[in-house]
Amino acid sequence: MEEEFNAGRIKGAAKRTLQITPLDEEDQEEVQIDDSGDVDSYDDDDETEEEDEDKEPVGLGVLEKPENSWSLLRELFPSKAGGTPAWLDPINLPTGKSCLCDICGEPLQFMLQVYAPLTEKDSTFHRTLFLFMCTSMTCLLKDQHEQWKRNQDKQSRSVKVFRCQLPRDNSFYSSEPPRNNGKDKPSSPGAVLCGWCGTWKGDKVCGGCRRVHYCSEKHQTVHWKSGHKQRCLPSSISQDASEPSNSKTLREVQEVASKSLWPEYEIAITDECEDNVSDDNGLVNSLISSSRVDESIEALMDSFEGGDDKKSWASFQERISRTPEQVLRYYRDAGAKPLWPTSSGQPSKADIPKCTYCGDHRAFEFQVLPQILYYFGVENDVHSLDWATIAVYTCESSCDGHIAYKEEFAWVQIASQSSTTQR
């Protein structure tokens, strides 16, 4: 039945959902400390390569417009980018400061989610990772200083990751595979969401119409100024405050909110091919314009101060050029490592905090490439949001517990680390 469930998610012979093999024994590599007392990088260039035959291929995420209006609904367990999250547990969402940028206090914006079930235990039959970030580059630069702090409780982050998992038998979804015909329905409704961002739980309500809910006063204010002031009906002729807005109102609010969100895409997962190198440095079939990539590469190369960074960047570019449209690299395997664009700014094992909930080690699971910003329509200028890569680390045992959304750890590497790696 598990194979049947996963088979219902495959949308073509060349594409696949994330098929995760059981974890191997915990990596026993010890942190190496040299005579100066410095901890070696998390990646050891001198480490012996393991045999590739026993490894799962790297899963590459490419963005596609959804085939149908219902393709990215939560009951279909999608991997998606932009728009609003398809919450796995639709009731017990993150709340409070978890939803905010710790630096500026603004609600975080949804970037993407990856449906990544694990087969080794029942509680991870459904499992999704959610990535959020502040859209301010100023906050991201400050975030660079924060991530080097060894005490995770004292870190102020502008990039946050949440992990949610459910057993096959749960109160939200059928135990049968989705039919993917537009007729699938969740077993229960979700929480009322913010009428502006459509992302976080709407635990505040408009005092006028008492129909539209918000996650924060900031989103209530911006929605009021953007037009809700003219459409706000007196509470005496609106619905009861305890009821969610009707479907028409929700669609109207979502249309307003969607102007501030990144465009929505489905993430299709393909296997990385080791010997598939495209012509013209891999840019012929890319949706990203060659001129823009050339400008970005030139700017990045100019920012690198040492030969090691340039060497790393050349190797990174060669690997990425095999599938230039990739925006995500997924590889949850024992000893898996990110593909680092630069040699500077890489974490040591000690820089990756242990799981806050069970104390187990965290391991690399996936990374996000800056190409995604092109699809999101982010401007390519010096003040715009940008990074070299975002590497996501999750609990090796994918621990259970009463908290529905457990916060994991993201390591952000930007193009130039010269001013951000003060430790």
Topology:
Blueprint: H1 2-7, E1 59-64, E2 80-81, E3 109-115, E4 126-133, H2 137-147, E5 159-166, E6 204-205, E7 213-214, H3 217-231, H4 247-257, E8 265-271, H5 290-303, H6 307-320, E9 328-330, E10 362-368, H7 372-375, E11 389-395, E12 406-407, E13 409-413
Antiparallel strand pairs: 1-8, 1-9, 2-3, 2-8, 3-4, 4-5, 5-12, 6-7, 9-10, 10-11, 11-13
How do you describe this structure in short?
InterPro entries: PDCD2_C (IPR007320), Znf_MYND (IPR002893). With 423 residues, the protein is α+β, with helices and mostly antiparallel strands.
Query: H/E series, N to C?
Result: HEEEEHEEEHHEHHEEHEEE
Share of β-strand residues: 15-25%
The shape, in one word, is globular
Number of domains: 2
Key traits:
alpha+beta; 2 domains; two-stranded antiparallel ribbon; 18% helix
What does this structure look like?
The protein is α+β, with helices and mostly antiparallel strands. The protein has two domains: 2-6 and 14-20 and 49-192 and 261-413, no CATH class; 204-260, no CATH class. The protein is built from seven helices and 13 strands. The strands form two sheets. Strands 12-5-4-3-2-8-1-9-10-11-13 form an eleven-stranded antiparallel sheet. A hairpin with a 7-residue loop joins β6 (204-205) and β7.
